[in-house]
Amino acid sequence: MAEITKIHLVYFSPSGSTEKVVRKIASAITESKNLPVETHNLLTPASRQRKYDFGENDLVILGWMTAGMLFGNTDEMFACLNANNTPLIGLITYGNGYYGVALTEMKRKSESRGFIVTSLAAFVSRHSIAPTFGEGRPDSHDELIIADFAKRSFEKILSGDYVMHNLPKTHWSSSEQANKIIAYRETNTEPYHIPPSYKTKEISDACVKCGTCVRNCPVDAIDIENKTFDLERCIGCWGCVNRCPKHAVINTSKDMSEIMKTFSSAFEKRLEPEIFM
């Protein structure tokens, strides 16, 4: 039987939703097993300049937002993680629309860094661009599923079963436009970079230059003094919009707004968490 001596929480969570789910999984595990928990937030460039090493007796709970996995520079982000046959529980969050190949990508990239992926899950959370989609998720029903997933995943690892018997699949959207992106990512492992016109934002006079957006930007794309954005560097995670305490960062992209209108029907049906073990 495997012996786990420490749990590590590793996450990329620009708006905070993914981090919450990662912590809920850890909490469900530590309810029955008193283990030390260490947190590694990979949000900022500075956090990814150091190396994180994990061994066979560590357990890593890895969380990522779908857009970050599909559109971000994940090769650079995963490069700071070094594992030696370390069991990994992985999850992605998405805004009730689609998660595409995010779980497949997580599995592939994690294994390339020395992890053994033992279970994966996709959970719905509030959409980062259109907060009315997935609003209130994960809710109490989701939390029961999260806790059950955590406990079953941990029991699976403790039993020495490191094999995934149910592999992740591509999750398609009801939106034709979204499916074009997903189809591209099925056959192309490099990120699909969102065009700059889809990421335009402005900072209103409500801004007090507190620096919250700058500290939480994963790619250092914000010049708060001049209230400008480097749209080539920006990955479109919308963390700056969602983290601003004054709601001063505003989406001004007509292209993105039009896309969200076409996606609206795709988000109406409630989607449930998907588990792969």
Explain this structure.
With 277 residues, the chain is of the alpha/beta class. Helix content is 32%, strand content 21%. The strands form 4 sheets. The chain has a 6-stranded mixed sheet with strand order 2-1-4-6-7-12, sandwiched between helices. A hairpin with a 4-residue loop joins β9 (222-223) and β10 (228-229). The radius of gyration is 18 Å and the shape is globular.
Summarize this structure as a short list of keywords or feature phrases:
globular, alpha/beta, single chain, 277 residues, 12 strands
Question: What characteristic shape results from the CA principal axes?
Answer: globular
Give the number of DSSP strands.
12
Low-confidence stretches: none
Mean pLDDT: 93
Q: How are strands sequenced across the largest beta sheet?
A: 2-1-4-6-7-12
Distance between the termini: 18 Å
Q: Would you tell me the structural class of the helices and strands?
A: alpha/beta
- Radius of gyration, taken over Cα atoms and rounded to an integer in Å: 18 Å
Strand content: 15-25%
How many helix segments? 9
Major beta-sheet overview: 6 strands, mixed
Helix fraction, binned, reads 25-40%
The H/E string reads: EHEEEHHEEHEHHEHEEHEHE
